[in-house]
Write a structure and sequence with these properties.
The complex is a heterodimer of chains A (about 280) and B (about 240). Chain A is mostly helical and about 280 residues long. Chain A contains eleven helices and no strands. Helices cover about 85% and strands about 0% of the residues of chain A. With about 240 residues, chain B is of the alpha/beta class. In chain B, the strands form two sheets. In chain B, strands 5-6-7-3-8-9 form a six-stranded mixed beta sheet, with helices on both faces. The longest helix of chain B is centred in the middle third of the chain and has 14 residues. At the A-B interface, helix 7, helix 8 and helix 10 of A face loops of B.
Chain lengths: ~280, ~240
């Protein structure tokens, strides 16, 4: 264990990785809260998986995979949101279609990319130890965008998530804020792909916020606690995985899953204690 | 100034089935109007038309001289059932504050004024002591008061209540309308109810709606008009005012 701790300060890649965990946790806790209270976990999953299409195309054309991921995530968010608003009854089918068609496009392009056979695994499961200084800067910018949007439109997001009909009557453009929310979820997915890859991103987006929901009863409280949980889980997952050379993304997700179970149990005791 | 809500010869149908036939109704400023009628008689549909959530097939509706979409920001609406999920993590106070949306400060936080108005609204329906509780922990009657407080926090010129007595026991009903009567003296109020005996004790005029609409002053209501409305004899519970 002590070996892991000293490594954090010795190697710049470990410092980068830890910083990446903290930066990702900010977006993850804030947007994860909205995903949980609006019950759009699988919609977020659909966006996350369709990201591979953008990464594949970017790789094929020699562009930046992360830029490709961002374009694909935003496109998927807008399309899923827009189609969902028009043909609401088909949400699950829509998600499934984006989920697998997105991945299929990505794999097609990656397979056709000439030359060096890229490590598909690091897209799918993340490779936090390869996070560069540029990546960190991008993550920082994404966090700033998310915080700014939530600060400016906190009430509108809350109202639209809480009570659509009433919000509409109060002049809130519910459809606009729904699509904006999905776009911000898309940006968060791109943030988190660095840490755990696009397959595991769904768990990291949802589990810290869902754990937080067991203990607090306000949106702000959930956001703050989810950021803290997420930072603790990602950082400790990273540290645990280092010495035995385990895949860090998977270690983080398993920790998050175990933590969620513990949170449910602790939360139920807390409720009993409060009502007693 | 003309009527606050003006409904002129409105027809409406769902998938070919007529719901409202040639309905006209002018609601004057500060009126306390009851709309009664059997289930599926078109009461909620009429409200949705006034709120601009539905459009009439023919005829016209104005709210404060504007289209329903423009005018509805000045309507406080209390739905029959909460339109939100009860497990949403939000306190009573924050739910009521959402009534201030679209009024006052546009971006970011609520102003002191917003908080003061929300507090007064909660005070009016006596929910100040439970303002920090999550909405998920409330009883049906308490939830109903939260919905009313949220509508009052809009500082509306028109207050619309859809079946406010549907989910509460009689004592709580009595209570809420007692409060409404004092607090809402300077507001136009429209109450929809299937419970004619209860409603006629408070309102100034009753509109009976069963596809078509007939208005009565409350003094005129007799067993006979009710029979006409429902098509079957109805037991009338007499009450003194």
């Amino acid at each position: 264990m002590s070996e892991s701790f000293s490594a954090i300060f010795e190697y710049s890649f470990m410092r980068h990785a830890l910083l990446a965990c903290l930066l990702a946790s900010i977006g993850c806790g804030i947007m994860g809260t909205y995903v949980v209270v609006r019950h759009i976990g699988f919609l977020a999953g659909g966006i996350a998986h369709s990201v591979l299409a953008g990464m594949g195309v970017a790789y094929f054309t020699g562009g930046s995979p992360l830029a490709g991921a961002m374009v694909a995530a935003l496109a998927a968010a807008i399309l899923i949101g827009w189609i969902n608003l028009r043909w609401r009854q088909n949400e699950d089918i829509l998600i499934a279609a984006f989920w697998s068609v997105g991945m299929a496009i990505g794999i097609l392009f990656i397979s056709r990319t000439p030359g060096y056979n890229i490590d598909l695994m690091s897209y799918l499961f993340g490779n936090i130890l390869l996070v560069s200084g540029e990546d960190l800067l991008l993550m920082f910018v994404l966090d700033v965008v998310i915080i700014l949007m939530v600060f400016l439109f906190y009430r509108e997001f809350l109202a639209a998530a809480f009570d659509e009909e009433f919000s509409r009557l109060r002049g809130v453009n519910v459809e606009f804020y729904y699509i904006l929310l999905l776009c911000m979820v898309a940006l968060t997915v791109v943030l988190l792909i660095q840490i755990v890859g696009l397959i595991l991103v769904l768990a990291l987006l949802i589990l810290p916020a869902a754990s937080a929901a067991q203990f607090v009863r306000s949106i702000n409280g959930m956001m703050i606690l989810a950021v803290i949980f997420s930072a603790l889980l990602t950082a400790s997952g990273l540290i645990f995985s280092y010495a035995p050379d385990l895949p860090s993304g998977s270690t983080i997700i398993i920790l998050a899953g175990a933590f969620y179970l513990a949170a449910i149990v602790a939360g139920s005791y807390l409720k009993k204690w409060r009502t007693a | 100034m003309g009527p606050v809500v003006d409904i002129r010869e409105v027809n409406f149908s769902y998938d070919g089935a007529t719901v409202l036939r040639n309905v006209s109704l002018a609601i004057e400023k500060d009126e306390f109007l009851g709309i009664v009628g059997p289930n599926a008689g078109g009461k909620s549909t009429l409200l949705k038309l006034v709120l601009g959530l539905l459009r009439p097939d023919s005829g016209g509706i104005t709210v404060l001289g504007m289209t329903p979409e423009e005018g509805r920001s000045r309507i406080g609406y209390v739905p029959q059932h909460p339109t939100f999920s009860r497990d949403f993590p939000i306190s009573v106070q924050d739910a009521v504050l959402l009534g201030r949306l679209g009024i006052g400060s546009r971006l970011g936080r609520y102003s002191e004024e917003d908080r003061k108005i929300a507090f007064e609204a909660m005070d009016a329906v006596k929910i100040v002591p439970i303002r920090h509780r999550p909405v998920g922990s409330l009883s049906g009657g308490q939830l109903q008061r939260v919905l009313i407080a949220r509508a009052l926090a809009c500082r509306p010129e028109i207050l619309i209540l859809d079946e406010p007595t549907a989910n509460i026991d009689m004592r709580a009903e009595e209570d809420i309308f007692g409060l409404l009567k004092e607090y809402l003296a300077h507001m136009t109020i429209i109450v929809v109810s299937h419970d004619i005996g209860f409603i006629s004790g408070y309102v100034g005029r009753v509109a009976c709606l069963n596809q078509t609409l007939v208005c009565h002053d409350t003094g005129e209501i007799s067993g006979r008009t009710i029979e006409e409305l429902y098509g079957t004899p109805v037991r009338v519970i007499h009450h003194t005012h």
